[in-house]
Amino acid sequence: MAFWQFKEYSSIIQVVLILLGTVAGTIILAIGITMTIKYAPQTQQQPLLLKILSFSASNLNVSDSLTASSWETTLLFANRDTVLEIFMESFETLLYYNHSHPISCAVVKPIHLGPWRQRVVQAEFNGTQCGEEQPFVDEKVFEELRRDEEEGKVRFRMGMTLKVLYRTGILSWDYELKPKCPDLEVKLVGATGSGEVARGRRPWICSVPLLK
Fold first, then answer.
1. What does the alpha-carbon distance between residue 111 and residue 119 come to, in Å, rounded to a whole number?
2. Membrane-crossing residues (predicted)?
3. Tell me: the pLDDT tens digits for 141-194?
4. Model confidence over 79-118: pLDDT tens digits?
């Protein structure tokens, strides 16, 4: 008799434990969903802000090649969220001539942004930043560059792919972002091959679509 009572009590305890486990799991899941809805980055409100503060060219001489040429830019990365942290892996940014022709590149070190924080980053495009493999520039592009150089105005654009982690507590979200930055028209000073974008138009804001 005692054996059957013990077995009955054991079955009841198992049922109770299963019910408690189910309830606890449901509560944890509900909390997780609620926190995700509350804190996850929203498409209509991207926490990451990217601005180009300055852009200049030096030794731009395309008579032979671009090996001696360099471009410098100052970028501002800002976190507009009061809860999320932002982590960005080291990334390569390409410099395009006339919208679609890559001519140089720069490497930016990893970036961390705490909630409601910003960071200014300097980047230089030159012949050493991309290691042994440089962007290939064909003769047709060189011809276009020479014409623009003679006219004293050259148009550039920066392109990059950012691997970004948004985090708060134990929750995190990974994104691969592709900012869309505006054209930068550099006015060259005489035959120096140097120049910068007109000061009156700063800063330039890059659109950073939040697409999973």
1. 8
2. 12-37
3. 989 998 998 888 999 999 999 999 999 999 999 999 999 999 999 998 877 789
4. 999 999 999 999 999 999 988 899 999 999 999 999 999 9
Look-up: residue for tokens 């000061």?
Answer: 199
- Residue-by-residue DSSP string for the chain: -HHHHHHHHHHHHHHHHHHHHHHHHHHHHHHHHHHHHHHSPBTTB-SEEEEEEEEEEES--TTT-STT-EEEEEEEEEE--SS-EEEE--EEEEEEETTTEEEEEEEE--EEE-TT-EEEEEEEEBTTTTTT-PPP--HHHHHHHHHHHHHTEEEEEEEE-EEEEEEETTEEEEEEE--BPPPEEEEE-TTS--EEE-GGG--EEEB-----
- Give 5: exposed, middle or buried? Use CB within 10 Å, 0-12, 13-18, 19+: exposed
CB 196, CB 73: distance < 8 Å: no
Its sign, for the CA torsion 23, 28, 32, 35, is positive
Maximum separation of any 2 CA atoms in the chain, in Å:
106
How many C-beta atoms lie closer than 10 Å to residue 85's C-beta?
A: 18
> Which are the contacts of 16, defined by CB distance < 8 A and separation ≥ 6?
none
CA distance 65 to 139: 10
- ∠ at Cα 25 (19, 26), nearest 5°? 90
